[in-house]
Design a protein that fits this description.
Blueprint lengths: L15 H8 L6 E2 L12 H12 L16 H13 L9 E4 L1 H13 L5 E6 L3 H7 L5 E8 L2 E2 L1 H9 L4 E6 L13 H14 L2 E5 L24 E6 L11 E4 L2 H15 L4 H13 L2 H26 L5 E2 L7 E5 L6 H13 L1 E2 L1 E2 L12 E5 L5 H17 L2
Parallel strand pairs: 1-12, 3-4, 3-6, 6-7, 7-8
Antiparallel strand pairs: 2-9, 4-5, 8-9, 10-11, 11-14, 13-14
Helix pairs in contact: 2-9, 4-5, 4-8, 10-12, 11-12
The structure holds 4'-deoxy-4'-aminopyridoxal-5'-phosphate.
The site of 4'-deoxy-4'-aminopyridoxal-5'-phosphate has 14 residues, from helix 4.
Length: 395
């Protein structure tokens, strides 16, 4: 049988990068490819205690079905975390999601008709495009500089793009570039969204992993007309395997999101919501996050220092104020995909993510994303040294 797929499935296709990264799963390869947190920093003992306690909860509550918008206690706790972070909200403003990834899927389903334009940073998170694509959008990609998305260019593009529906941004320590959106540009983005009747999808999985610089207000806290859908996640501050994230949005948006949640999976796993909730009750999340920050900051410094010593001078890399990634720029004419396939993997035994697929409209070959959180400091030094030697040998 030849399946007669729905039209939207034309946009649901494997990408070449997935195949290339699968090669990086070989333990002999030092991979800077994935966006994985450091597993040695997972609070395993605490989670063991938490899971064993919730399993014994009276009436098997943690093993039972739960409300589709999330366990009430967890919604309260997320609202307190958000409020303490400068975005005042209550439990009723929070929808618990299966990771923030689910919020990307829902936002596109909710707001985007085929052919509508989603505006993104250029480059942007590949997983967001994978979530958006089944809604059959067109993309407009806005160049970035050291302060994030260029608002002057966004303004121009919006003037010529009547079908723009949503702007997607990762304001802190963006994936893949590590760049943070400045406060002035956050203000301008809200003004432009108001003027052009746009939804702003604010994706903040790295927000808490800040190494330095001042804490910036969320777009949600600046939202004057209820246009911002804020997504948060426990993946990077607790463990990604829990698959617990959340959305905070104004009533009309949240009401529809809740219905999409019922349609998609009824609810996030009760066990995992209960575990996140009891962890927050029993332990100090901010103390745990402080440990992560210190460790990732050290790793970031080790990677950038190694790049400076080992890479050819023409290669530059961003120095992020937080998060898990640095973004390397190679000279014009360099093809990061071909180099990974032909040299980095087979000779240097190192993987990274070639940058091309992060560009939604026009791929650019001479960039790569490097993750520094997953490998030990010694492996970072070893991998960057090997890659640097290979880059110089093949220059
Ligand atoms: N947004 C961004 C920018 C990400 O990098 C990721 C994961 N790497 C996600 C969303 C999804 O995170 P999760 O579903 O685990 O919360």
């Amino acid at each position: 049988m030849t399946p007669r797929f729905a039209a939207r499935m034309a946009r649901v296709e494997p990408n070449a990068i997935g195949e290339l990264l699968a090669l990086g799963a070989d333990p002999a390869i030092i991979s800077f490819g994935g966006g994985y947190p450091d597993p040695t920093l997972f609070p395993a003992e605490e989670l063991e205690a938490v899971f064993s306690e919730i399993i014994r909860a009276p009436g098997g509550l943690a093993m039972q079905y739960a409300p589709s918008d999330g366990l009430p206690r967890l919604r309260e706790q997320v609202a307190s975390l958000m409020t303490a972070d400068g975005t005042p909200c209550g439990a009723e403003d929070v929808l618990i999601l299966q990771g923030s990834q689910q919020g990307l899927d829902f936002a596109a389903k909710m707001m985007v008709n085929p052919g509508d334009v989603i505006v993104t940073e250029d480059p942007t998170f590949l997983g967001a495009r994978i979530a958006f694509d089944p809604s059959e959008p067109a993309y407009a990609a806005i160049p970035m500089d050291a302060e994030g998305m260029r608002m002057d260019i966004l303004e121009e593009v919006l003037r010529e793009t009547p079908h723009a529906r949503m702007v997607y941004t990762i304001p802190e320590f963006q994936n893949p570039t590590g760049v943070t959106l400045s406060v002035e540009r956050r203000r301008r983005l809200i003004e432009l969204a108001n003027a052009h009747d746009l939804i702003v999808l604010e994706d903040t999985p790295y927000r808490q992993i800040r190494f330095e610089g001042s804490h910036l207000p969320t777009l949600k806290s600046m939202d004057t007309e209820g246009r911002v859908i804020h997504l948060g996640s426990f993946s990077k501050v607790l463990v990604p395997g829990l698959r617990v994230g959340w959305a905070v949005a104004s009533r009309p948006l949240l009401d529809k999101l809740k219905l999409l949640k019922v349609a998609a999976d009824t609810q996030t796993s009760t066990l995992n919501m209960a575990a996140a909730s009891l962890f927050l009750d029993r332990y100090d999340l901010s103390e745990h996050v402080a440990k992560l920050r210190a460790a990732y900051r050290r790793k970031k410094d080790v990677m950038l220092d190694a790049m400076r010593r080992h890479f050819p001078q023409e290669v530059s890399a961003t120095d992020p104020d937080g998060g898990l990634f640095t973004w390397a720029t190679f000279p014009d004419g360099f093809d990061a995909t071909a180099f990974m396939r032909d040299v980095a993997l087979p000779e240097a035994r190192v993987a990274y993510v070639p940058g091309g697929s992060f560009f939604p409209v026009t791929e650019r070959p001479n960039f790569a994303r490097f993750n520094y959180s997953a490998q030990s400091e010694a492996r970072i030094e070893e991998g960057i040294a090997a890659l640097g030697a290979a880059l110089k040998a093949h220059a």
